[in-house]
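Task card 7
Instruction: Convert sequence to structure tokens.
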Amino acid sequence: MFKPILFVLVVSLLAGCASTRKWESSYEEYKNSVEMPEIEVRMTTDHFPGIVRTTWQHNIQVFVDNSLALQTPIHEDYSGSLLFFYEQDRFEMECVKPNFYSFSECEVQVNGRRAGKVSFGN
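Output:
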């Protein structure tokens, strides 16, 4: 009787510890980006504590002209290349975390032209 109660207690404790964090972002258009669509990027981090290993899952949502264009996970270290098409435009995002103490940044290109940079932070 003790083992099933202990198991249920441990599982409910671990399930209750999962959390989600939403990161604020800022988008900086480049000076020569004329007639580019309005871009907004949101990132959330899901934290799943485990007995042996804690895992994080980072998800990005890209909005183009206030419409959801892409929703996808990125690598655990905030890096990754994203290529997607929205309407007739080709979007490329190269995301990196410059160093341990900084937040992730993504360079954005639309149809092969530099459009801007997304920075994440608190």
